[in-house]
Amino acid sequence: SSILIGGNWRSESERGKSHAHTGSGLAADEEVCTVQTHTFPFSLRHLSHLLLSFYHPPTPLRYTLQVLSDLGDGEKIGDQIIINWVNTQLKEGGKDSQISSFKDKLISTSLPVIDLLGTIAPKSIKEELVKRGELSDADKLNNAKYAITVSRKIGARVYALPDDLVEVKPKMVLTVFACLMGRGMKKADG
């Protein structure tokens, strides 16, 4: 393998020779990093730990756990509570779609998500853009793209991708419905 050291690519063997030649005394797991004109010896393990300790980007899971905790007044809420909320909203909104779990095959059509969006954010869905009935794989993907786009447009922080809905990936489906529940509850609160 090769590494960029001081602006020059060097192979493992060349790096070893340069350390032996200069007598730098670096341990086997240390590299030399040249930043502008300064050289710092450090362990790659140490650098990755250092970077991770200062940079913790928000993750979809962390955000979803926060939403779930917020919805449950500090306690995480379970799957069944979200499913019941989704089905209640759909029923109250006069929609026919219902889900039995986050593995429900109907989710592959994205119709439960689209219908839920129509109930929590009226006028957000343009029915002429939604495919219903017998759906091809392309129709399912287009519905999923539309559902994700509208979710984000109404302010739900949805990290899932259209394929996550089409392939019915339960954990990602959970994040979609949890974020929409959070958005729907905000609407109800004020």
UniProtKB/TrEMBL annotation:
PROSITE patterns according to UniProt? CH (PS50021)
Domain annotation Calponin-homology (CH): ranges: 76-185
GO BP annotations of the record are: actin filament bundle assembly; actin filament network formation
> Is Acetylation one of the keywords?
no
UniProt GO MF annotations: actin filament binding; metal ion binding
Name it: Calponin-homology (CH) domain-containing protein
Write down the InterPro entries for this protein, in alphabetical order: CH_dom, CH_dom_sf, Fimbrin/Plastin
Query: Where is the segment annotated Disordered?
Result: 1-23
Is Calcium a UniProt keyword of this protein?
yes
Source organism per entry reads Hucho hucho
User: What is the top-level taxon of the source organism?
Assistant: Eukaryota
Recorded GO cellular component terms are:
actin filament; actin filament bundle; cytoplasm
Keywords attached to this Swiss-Prot or TrEMBL record, sorted alphabetically, are: Actin-binding, Calcium, Metal-binding, Repeat
